[in-house]
């Protein structure tokens, strides 16, 4: 299989792959990592003779991804797709690939304890951190964390695995490493540090102190639209390159990576591949989470309810396009602290990216895990508007759209497959309440999402109820048109 991929009609890894050193262990070999951080690292190897390589790890799920990667000598294809043209590159910076449940947890921990490992990076989605999105703190009652604390040498969660690896490194007299979150969360490095140190303190206070002195947790902002891989995607990549690649992934041409330059044991020179290394990532993270991810979620929930299966279909509806643009500039942009960025241009660029007909980014995919996304994508902005006594009607409509979506039945009376780590809590609120205001109040009562204060903010509760009633009475399309007018 390796020779087949090395004969693909694509940009091939012309560098010496044998010279690569797996100084990075990455947890979460999903589509996003393949199309984002690994591409930056591949460009460095190809154009700047970097010898930084990856050991890829999946802890839970994704067994087939690792098997496919190993079957083709750790090579895979990334196709950039636009309406005009598709281009492809074969990425070659992966040196090893492991699965905790196939190769065994011990193999993963051994890889993390190799002396040369300088960075452990993660794309495990928000729910993988076992934290409360409302507070950013570790949930000590999370089932994974409870199980890991009872048997810390045999962890299953990402925090548990990282802390056990660090405990072993400390015992062996090895250096710490940098733990770098690449997931969509505000201050993801701070969340990572909170989670790791809280878990470590519950295991061993001395270990927690050592981690605080020997491990850094840089924050990052990552941006590239990478739809979930489908059979159709793989067919298109095969047609483009002449080689079928089950580990292939497709994405938009745009990519951005802003990284806090805080690495305890060195790092690749990612800035040479287009990344921005900065002192403070938070303003960029907030911009992306609120303007891009917030509008994406808005379109996903309300678009799905209206029968739009893909984001580009939402963009073909002038009202949805206008509403998303207005949400970005009138309700999200005023809440931001980022300096030196033309936010009007940024919003226009986002609308153009959403309109990419080649992407086929499913509203259902973006609608997942709303309980983890609402706090940073919409609710933090709502809190800002409440303090400043300003308009947040579209944000309230987004929240109401989520509530209508997690009700589990669409406007045609068809069931919605709701995927969320808090699904049982959400269903309890839905099933235990009558449709309408009672349902809204029941969902607002989920503290892990809405915290303690928001459910008592009369202006917020009233605005969400108003939007929810309109969605019930007249449906998403008419309601979005009304808000966009």
Fold and architecture overview:
There is one protein chain. Helices cover 49% and strands 11% of the residues. The chain has helices spanning 2-5, 31-35, 37-48, 63-71, 105-112, 143-150, 158-171, 188-203, 205-214, 231-241, 282-305, 311-315, 318-332, 343-354, 363-367, 370-388, 393-406, 423-431, 437-444, 447-450, 458-484, and strands at 21-27, 52-58, 76-81, 86-91, 94-99, 119-122, 178-181, 220-223, 249-251, 256-260, 276-278. With 485 residues, the protein is of the alpha/beta class. The radius of gyration is 22 Å and the shape is globular. The longest helix has 27 residues, at 458-484. α7 crosses α8, α11 crosses α17 (393-406) and α13 (318-332) packs antiparallel against α14 (343-354). It contains 21 helices and eleven strands.
Low-confidence stretches: none
Number of strands: 11
Number of DSSP helical runs: 21
- Cα Rg: 22 Å
> Which strand-content bin applies to the residues?
5-15%
What is the spatial order of strands in the main beta sheet?
5-2-1-6-7
Largest sheet: 5 strands, parallel
Query: What characteristic shape results from the CA principal axes?
Result: globular
Average pLDDT for all residues: 96
Helical residue percent band:
40-55%
Counting helices, strands and paired strands, the structural category is: alpha/beta
Distance between the termini: 55 Å
């Amino acid at each position: 299989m390796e020779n087949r991929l090395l004969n693909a009609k694509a940009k091939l890894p012309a560098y010496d792959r044998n010279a690569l050193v797996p100084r990075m262990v990455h947890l979460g070999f999903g589509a996003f990592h393949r199309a984002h951080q690994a591409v930056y690292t591949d460009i460095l190897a190809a154009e700047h003779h970097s010898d930084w390589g990856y050991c890829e790890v999946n802890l839970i799920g994704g067994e087939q991804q690792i098997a496919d990667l190993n079957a083709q000598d750790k090579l895979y294809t990334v196709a950039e797709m636009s309406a005009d043209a598709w281009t492809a590159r074969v990425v070659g910076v992966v040196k090893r690939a492991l699965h905790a449940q196939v190769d065994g947890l011990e193999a993963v921990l051994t890889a993390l304890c190799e002396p040369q490992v300088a960075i452990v990076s993660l794309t495990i989605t928000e729910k993988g951190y076992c934290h409360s999105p409302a507070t950013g703190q570790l949930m000590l009652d999370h089932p994974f964390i409870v199980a890991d604390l009872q048997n810390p040498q045999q962890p299953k969660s990402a925090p548990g695995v990282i802390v056990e690896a660090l405990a072993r490194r400390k015992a062996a007299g090895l250096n710490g490493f940098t733990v770098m979150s690449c997931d969509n969360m505000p201050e993801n490095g701070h969340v990572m540090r909170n989670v790791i140190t809280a878990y470590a303190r519950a295991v061993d206070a001395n270990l927690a102190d050592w981690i605080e002195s020997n491990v850094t947790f840089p924050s990052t902002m990552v941006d590239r639209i990478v739809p979930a891989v489908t059979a159709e995607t793989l067919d298109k990549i095969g047609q483009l390159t002449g080689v079928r690649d089950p580990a292939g992934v497709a994405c938009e041409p745009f990519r951005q990576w802003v990284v806090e330059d805080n690495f305890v044991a060195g790092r690749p020179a990612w800035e040479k591949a287009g990344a921005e290394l900065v002192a403070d990532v938070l303003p960029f993270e907030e911009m992306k989470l609120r303007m891009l991810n917030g509008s994406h979620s808005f379109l996903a929930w309300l678009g799905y309810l209206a029968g739009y299966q893909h984001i580009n279909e939402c963009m073909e509806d002038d009202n949805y396009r206008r509403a998303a643009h207005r949400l970005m500039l009138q309700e999200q942009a005023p809440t931001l602290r980022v300096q030196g960025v033309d936010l009007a241009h940024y919003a226009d660029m986002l609308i153009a990216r959403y309109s990419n007909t080649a992407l086929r980014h499913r509203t259902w995919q973006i609608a997942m895990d709303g309980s983890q996304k609402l706090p940073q994508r919409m609710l933090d902005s709502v809190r800002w508007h409440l303090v400043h006594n300003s308009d947040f009607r579209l944000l309230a409509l987004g929240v109401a759209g989520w509530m209508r979506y997690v009700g589990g039945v669409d406007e045609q009376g068809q069931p919605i497959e709701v995927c969320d780590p808090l699904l049982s809590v959400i269903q309890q609120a839905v099933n235990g309440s009558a449709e309408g205001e009672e349902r809204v109040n029941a969902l607002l009562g989920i503290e892990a999402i809405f915290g303690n204060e928001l459910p008592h903010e009369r202006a917020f509760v009233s605005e969400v109820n108003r939007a929810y009633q309109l969605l019930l009475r007249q449906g998403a399309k008419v309601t979005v048109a009304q808000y966009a007018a």
